[in-house]
Amino acid sequence: DGGITQSPKYLFRKEGQNVTLSCEQNLNHDAMYWYRQDPGQGLRLIYYSQIVNDFQKGDIAEGYSVSREKKESFPLTVTSAQKNPTAFYLCASRDRDHEQYFGPGTRLTVT
Amino acid sequence: GQSLEQPSEVTAVEGAIVQINCTYQTSGFYGLSWYQQHDGGAPTFLSYNALDGLEETGRFSSFLSRSDSYGYLLLQELQMKDSASYFCAVTTGFQKLVFGTGTRLLVSP
Q1: Phi and psi at residue B95, in whole multiples of 5°?
Q2: Residue A13 forms contact with B (CB below 8 Å)
Q3: How far is A76 from A81, CA to CA, in rounded Å?
Q4: Are A4 and A91 in contact (CB under 8 A)?
Q5: pLDDT in tens, B30-75
Q6: DSSP E strand boundaries for chain A
Q7: Nearest CB neighbour to A105, from listed B42, B45, B50
Q8: In chain B, what residues touch A42 (CB-CB under 8 Å)?
Q9: Would an 8 Å CB–CB cutoff place A43 in contact with chain B?
């Protein structure tokens, strides 16, 4: 079964700690994306990558970092510099057409 | 700036037809997409319009007017399972998506 996996589903951290969210896809897609969703809001783009070893900042990249060492993997690190990290994080990938395929998301709570 | 406006909530009964509007103002436009998201779930793709006109996919149709910076999603023969949030999204440069804030659809029996 092809798809996108994100782990874990729920994550709890203390303020001041960095945390890395996993995103893996076996769809053989070149492009991958990270979004943040806050309650009652739309999705906001954090980072995206169109090809291995290359990525660009989205609209709200401050306090986040990513890497793209393999086509299948696009992990997101939420650093202690992110002022309001508690949110629902969604990873997506895209083939050559316009449809983005989303993973199940990780709900991060920082206290 | 970039903005997409949608109604925050729409209610309807089973079997009815509902239209969710989206107006946009973005730097760059390649197309308008619609995504469905059930509570706690991942968004799933519904439709994409790059050119003016109506696209039909089963019970769902989507319309685009580029000159008016406007589109809508039309849901027919509503079912309880259609209760969800619906997001319009504009494809800007480099295949980036800018999302609206979403419309919560409540379908009642």
Answers
A1: 55, 30
A2: no
A3: 14
A4: yes
A5: 999 999 999 999 999 999 999 999 999 899 999 999 999 999 999 9
A6: 4-7, 10-13, 19-25, 31-37, 43-51, 54-57, 64-66, 76-78, 87-94, 100-102, 106-110
A7: B42
A8: 4, 87, 99-102
A9: yes
